[in-house]
Amino acid sequence: MLSAQKKDTWKLILLFFMPAVLIWVTTMVIPFIYGIWISFVKWDGIGSNYTYVGLANYAKIFKSAKFFQSLSRTAVYTVGTVVLSNILGLALGLLLTSALKARNFFRTAIFVPNVIGGVAMGYIWKYIFHYGFTAVGKAMGIEWLSKSMLSDPTTAMIALIIVSSWQLSAYLMIIYVAGFTNVPGELIEAARVDGASSWKTFWNVRLPMIRSSITICLFLAIVRSFMVFEVNMSLTDGGPFNSTEMIAYRIYNTAFVSLKFGDAQAQAVVLFVIVALISVLQAYLTSRKEVEL
Asked: pTM value?
């Protein structure tokens, strides 16, 4: 039997614990289960008529060329964004943990892009690409810069990767700053005493010591890149000629434009499984290297 004091302790724990669990269940678990159920029905998202179709919605996915085209574009975008954002975040993290004056100011200033909402940021950069860069290109006689990057399928994808990496690197920078800050100063000093150059100190001492930060940043970058929506919608709107329609934006169009919520939810479930598998594999491979250090 529990004593009165232990009972009071458990009541206090439940008092603080249950509201968070209730919010999590109502906002995450129930919608997730409901969404899986919708993937097995035909529904327009408006009426109350649900027609059970079994695995028909999933069968359509594997017959849809547009779905795999969007998925392949998302894969290209993800690779570009993950690589570029992590390189930028790592470089900024290294710079802002060095003997730099006004480091706190620069950290705050560089982090600002991550505070800007995806929709607002997309429209701001859309204006810059359409009018800012083109005006500079025309004034300086640079032909390739005189034309908006968003008007060509190839350069539009590059523009999307640049904007997303610019925003995401600001967030990853904070994680890398924390990682570099926790590197023992004794190790760095010992490397310098042994005559190691700045590059060798970074490559052989600092970088191996922040493997956990790299694991986290890669995981976050992969998940956010696969789920990109706001910037895709506001910056390129999937164009030109659907060349930048990412998978999340396609799911949105299937649900809210074509009013095929069952098809859209089936696509969302498939995307969830793909992202989960890739994220778990990435976390496993990078964390295994951490153990080997």
From this structure: 0.87
DSSP annotation of 237 = T
Distance between CA atoms of 124 and 133, rounded to whole angstroms? 13
pLDDT digits (tens, 9 = 90+) for 149-160: 999 999 999 999
Residues 6+ apart with CB under 8 A from 265: 35, 36, 38, 39, 57, 255
pLDDT, tens digit, 9 for 90 and up, residues 236-254: 999 888 899 999 999 999 9
Nearest to 160 by CA among 227, 81, 92, 252: 81
Are 261 and 43 a contacting pair, CB within 8 Å? Answer: yes
Res 3: pLDDT = 66
CB burial string 152-180: b at 16+ within 10 A, e below: eeebbbebbbbbbbbbbbbbbbbbbbebb
Cα–Cα dist 221/84, whole Å: 10
- Express each pLDDT in 69-117 by its tens digit: 999 999 999 999 999 999 999 999 888 887 777 777 777 777 877 777 7
- Give the Å distances, CA to CA, from 4 to 14, 16, 18, 124, 244: 15, 19, 21, 61, 63
d(CA 289, CA 293): 7
